[in-house]
Amino acid sequence: EVRRFANYAKLWLSGATEHNEDSFDQEIGSRLSEDFSGVLPWGDVNTKQEFLAVIKFGYGRAKGLEIVVDEFQVLNQLCADLTLVSYRETQSESGNPRQNNNKLRVVRRSTAILKTTTTTRDDGGGVGPLVIEWKHLHFTWIKAPQESGDPHSW
Questions:
Q1: So what's the pLDDT on residue 97?
Q2: Where is average pLDDT lowest: 15-19, 38-42, 139-143?
Q3: Mean pLDDT over residues 34-52, rounded?
Q4: Furthest CA-CA distance within the chain
Q5: In sequence order, what E strands does the chain have?
Q6: pLDDT averaged over the chain?
Q7: Residue 130: what pLDDT?
Q8: Neighbouring C-beta atoms of residue 13, cutoff 10 Å
Q9: For residues 5 and 24, is the Cβ–Cβ distance under 8 A?
Q10: What does the angle CA 32 – CA 33 – CA 34 come to, to the nearest 5 degrees?
Q11: Which residues contact 103 (CB under 8 A, 6 or more apart)?
Q12: Fewer CB under 10 Å: which end of the chain, C or N?
């Protein structure tokens, strides 16, 4: 789920996917719970709508963006359907005209609370697919985008 989420964010932010609100809502918006909260690296706490607005605004602004997600850990099973996870995210942006070395590198440690829910099949035939919903996400910079001059860089 974390890799899927990061991959679509990469496609959106780099402009490598069609600028389509329905697709964005399905791939990102529907994955966030209605009571979602997100803490951005510079400390802002966002509601679901505020967080989505930040990502939507970034469409196509990070040409050549690459995102690698690794170092996954399950930190705690908070209850039957809530899991606290941690992961590292490394972003590289080639072709960025703001950079002397043509490469922006941001490394973040993130923690998230994910909620799992089983669904029932539409045909009444038992258990359907597992749904994973993001309840909370907190980004912390390990290596900030100092070279970019933009403290709000993704």
A1: 46
A2: 139-143
A3: 95
A4: 59
A5: 32-39, 45-47, 65-79, 82-94, 103-120, 127-143
A6: 86
A7: 82
A8: 22
A9: no
A10: 115
A11: 92, 93, 94, 96
A12: N
Hey, what are 60's tokens? 């196509």
Q: Beginning with the edge strand found earlier in the chain, give each strand of the sheet holding 103-120 in spatial order.
A: 45-47, 32-39, 127-143, 103-120, 82-94, 65-79
- Gap between the Cα atoms of 14 and 10, Å rounded: 6
Closest CA to 12 of 36, 39, 31: 31
Q: Please give the Cα distance from 12 to 63 (Å, whole number).
A: 10
111 has a pLDDT exceeding 90: yes
What radius of gyration, in Å, describes the C-alpha atoms of the chain? 16
Residue 71 vs residues 89, 93, 110, 123, 141: alpha-carbon distances, Å: 9, 21, 10, 39, 15
Angle between helices 2-14 and 48-57 (to 10 degrees): 50
Evaluate if pTM is beyond 0.70.
yes
Positive or negative CA dihedral for 7, 59, 86, 146?
A: positive
- C-alpha to C-alpha distance for 48 and 136, rounded to whole angstroms: 9
pLDDT confidence bin for 106, thresholds 50/70/90: confident
| 3-state DSSP assignment of residue 64 | coil
